[in-house]
Amino acid sequence: MDIESKLFQLGESARFDLCNSRKERESNFSYLIHPAVLPGGGCINLLKVLYTNECSGECFYCANYCNLPKKRLSFIPDELARLFLSFYQQGFVKGLFLSSGLGINPNQTQQEMIDTVEILRKKFLFRGYIHLKILPGVKEDLIIRGLDLADRVSINLEAPSEKRLKMLSRRKVNYDDLLGKISFIKNTIERRYLKKDQTTQLVIGASEESDKEVLTRTYNLYQDFLLKRVYYSAFKPLPSTPFSDKEATPLIREVRLYQADFLLREYNFHLKDILFDSGDTLNKEIDPKLMYARLHPEIYPVEINKADYFSLLKVPGIGPKSAKRIIENRRKNNYKSTVELKNTGAVLKRALPFITLNGKILEKLNEDTNQLKMEWREAM
Ligand code: SF4
């Protein structure tokens, strides 16, 4: 098979791995090129590809499920490094996201992935962004080599617990071992003062896990393992896989999880601030921040000209950037009108019922907060 066909097939299979991708660009290479937000901000196009779609793993939802009748392909390191370089030199991409199936031997596959990155760094002197997938169960010295070469690494947990992971896969996986490797990466980054980070990915809705289970794991990953991001991938059934008859997860579930995740990661919310119903699910109609605000009338309205940063962050429609701008601008002059507030980037439509300006209430909440409170307290 020619290299181009290989690239298209292994690029197509890589789309199930998430890497901070934004909307895909329309082009002949849209399978392969993914605009992604970088850890320090800014957005670049990444070539996203699998090293191999061969996999000894038996994950019931996966496009690379080992019993699927599909052609198994693999790059060799020099070939993939040159391919990437030609994309880079033609200006299609500025970075690489390299993932992979396990291959026949995960250590061997990881070794070859690292060799690819090493060729790029040392032979072709590529200094741009590389996100390298770490395969489950690989040796720690390979992880260290990967960390030396890549900007970001990730191990996919796929599920919030061992019990849930077993429902997704026949593969022998030791969940504690996965967490152990994540911890090893964290410790290596800290010990060696590396300017690198790690992320992970969870499949949502394939193992009957609740939103609360997912976000409890997420909170633990942010607090104890210092992960940069957790990505959520709403389950979609693929033909011929053991889960082909399972219902797809509604996208709104993924959206609500990302919103709650954002609160935990950027807004200083504690897990106990996220409200779940009796089935441990997030509300599909109302986003988690608005839900929190409606159920905590005791902390609102917040006075725009006096509130501290964290109180401002609790206001729907005010995010970290607008909260910082409000505080900076306030040092010079107190806010006098909502027009001035709008210039901070705050979404006034959402914020007005929860703030006062110089003591003045700007808009009354029209929903029946007490009723909502009663219903959710009963459900919880
Ligand atoms: S280990 Fe599982 S999820 Fe990963 S590529 Fe193999 S079958 Fe797919």
Automatic annotation (TrEMBL):
InterPro entries documented for this protein: Aldolase_TIM, DNA_rSAM_put, Elp3/MiaA/NifB-like_rSAM, Endo/Exo/Phosphatase_dom_1, rSAM, rSAM_sf, RuvA_2-like
Pfam short name (any one): Radical_SAM
Keywords: Iron, Iron-sulfur, Metal-binding, S-adenosyl-L-methionine
Domain called Radical SAM core: residue spans: 39-277
Molecular function terms from GO: catalytic activity; iron-sulfur cluster binding; metal ion binding
Protein origin, superkingdom: Bacteria
SUPFAM superfamilies, per database record: Radical SAM enzymes, RuvA domain 2-like
Name listed for the protein in its UniProt record: Radical SAM core domain-containing protein
Organism ancestry: Bacteria, Bacillati, Candidatus Lithacetigenota, Candidatus Psychracetigena
